[in-house]
Amino acid sequence: MGAEIHRLRDRPGESEKITINLGYVDLGFVDLLVREGFYSNRTDLIRTAIRNQLAAHADAVKQSIVRETLEIGLRRYRREHLEAARAAGEKLRIQVVGLATIADDVTPELALETIESITVLGALQASTAVKTALSDRIR
């Protein structure tokens, strides 16, 4: 009855845009490194810095994932998955690092009947109606 799990790759369609604020001096240093050819652009430097920090803290991340039983990657919940959970009398506790999607054909009523809680470190994609119905269960 499990939902589909896919490993995420860093491709344009599989990323989330974030906004950061930098001080003028830090931004100037970033631009200097780009101009000197260390990085192709600001985004390249920021992604590299983030990846370096994630690598530096990899053990702590792994321990947290195991401790909290988080799933990594892309997890898709389709209507048939939720209907199977309802038929089995089960409630889902969705815990994902990456991207969790709830299919567009899942009704708010079905989601409320079958999803006990949602914890997503990354992004959650679902219809506005489903997100609204589950708002008190999304952490």
Question: Could you please describe the fold and organization of this structure?
Answer:
With 139 residues, this protein is α/β, with parallel strands linked by helices. Helix 4 crosses helix 5. The longest helix has 15 residues, at 42-56. A four-stranded mixed β-sheet has the order 1-2-3-4, covered by helices on one side. It is built from six helices and four strands, in the order βαααβαβαβα. The two termini are 24 Å apart. The chain has helices at 24-35, 42-56, 58-68, 79-87, 108-114, 128-133; strands at residues 4-6, 71-77, 92-102, 115-125. It is 43% helix and 23% strand. The mean pLDDT is 89. It has two domains: 21-56, no CATH class; 60-137, no CATH class. Helix 4 (79-87) links the parallel strand 2 (71-77) and strand 3.
List the helices and strands and how they pair.
Blueprint: E1 4-6, H1 24-35, H2 42-56, H3 58-68, E2 71-77, H4 79-87, E3 92-102, H5 108-114, E4 115-125, H6 128-133
Parallel strand pairs: 2-3, 3-4
Antiparallel strand pairs: 1-2
Helix pairs in contact: 4-5
